[in-house]
Specification:
The chain is an alpha+beta fold. It has a single domain, classed as 3-Layer(aba) Sandwich (L-fuculose-1-phosphate Aldolase). 37% of the residues lie in helices and 12% in strands. A 7-stranded mixed beta sheet has the order 3-2-1-4-7-6-5, sandwiched between helices. The longest helix is centred in the N-terminal third of the chain and has 24 residues.
Length: 268
């Protein structure tokens, strides 16, 4: 693909300029317009995800990050630039982060987001979105060392779909820590980071955000009823499979946008 195939980022916000540091995928089955539309959708959902987190009073200290894989340069991800409050996130505030942690336009990022999220994106090509932040119930639950059990309807959504990162590196200082997280996570959607917090992934950003909000509700139930009686494995699997009907998490994301953001055009 020639360098002139893509319009530079400064001229067209939804399209990254190809560089030697990026790995472009085969886009012969998609038109430029289709690639741009998918990129814009992912970026808009990231910005909306940050605003949903802010409405839930998560990330007040800037502690957390949401990323989306670029649909063309799949080893790169979109992330909110450093210093922007979650409640103010817009599409224009997102920066394209290369595999080495540098950004296309030079704007700064939270380096921990690169340390944690990039290895997860790299390990599983089906992962489009990754979300992590420190929440009122998620962080203390992860400090308890407990796992998830099918004690509520929503908990069944994660039955046999979660992993525990039993590691003391709560301050992830480099990609090695993120690689261990990715290895422990495997193909699960949810991760409990010991003494740290929750993390979710998804095949779309919308799915990722809906899963994270649901996971926080699940661990809240675990904390409030520590001696709850789980339902049977068979019943948990039946509930899980029904709850994960294709598109259900995407629909949940739209409800979250309506409740916590209102007009989605505020992000651009």
């Amino acid at each position: 693909m020639g360098a002139g195939f893509l319009v530079p980022l400064l001229a067209r916000q939804n399209s990254p300029r190809e560089t030697d540091d990026m790995t472009a995928t085969d886009t012969t089955t998609m038109s430029t317009a289709q690639i741009d539309a998918e990129r814009l959708r992912r970026k808009r959902d990231v910005a909306l995800g940050y605003r949903i987190f802010a409405s839930l009073r998560w990330g007040d200290l800037g502690d957390g990050h949401i990323t989306a894989r670029d649909p063309e340069h799949t080893d790169c991800m979109w992330l909110l630039r450093y210093g922007v409050g979650f409640e103010r996130a817009t599409i224009d505030d997102l920066v394209l982060v290369r595999a080495d942690g540098t950004t296309l336009d030079g704007r700064q990022i939270n380096s921990t987001a690169h340390h944690i999220h990039h290895p997860i994106h790299a390990a599983n090509p089906d992962v489009i979105g990754v979300a992590h932040t420190h929440t009122p119930w998620g962080t203390p639950f992860c400090a308890s060392g407990r796992g998830l059990e099918p004690i509520t309807q929503e908990a069944c959504q994660f039955y046999e779909r979660w992993a525990f990162f039993d590691d003391e590196e709560v301050q992830v200082l480099g990609l090695a820590g993120g690689e261990r997280i990715a290895q422990a996570m495997g193909t699960n959607q949810a991760m409990l980071l010991r003494s740290h917090g929750l993390l979710t992934t998804g095949t779309s950003v919308a799915e990722t955000i809906a899963a994270f909000v649901t996971l926080e509700r699940v661990v809240e139930a675990h904390m409030k009823v520590p001696n709850a009686e789980p339902i049977s494995e068979r019943s948990a699997r039946i509930a899980r499979d029904d709850l994960l009907v294709k598109g259900s998490q995407e629909q949940a994301f739209q409800f979250l946008v309506q409740r916590h953001v209102g007009d989605p055009s505020v992000v651009g």
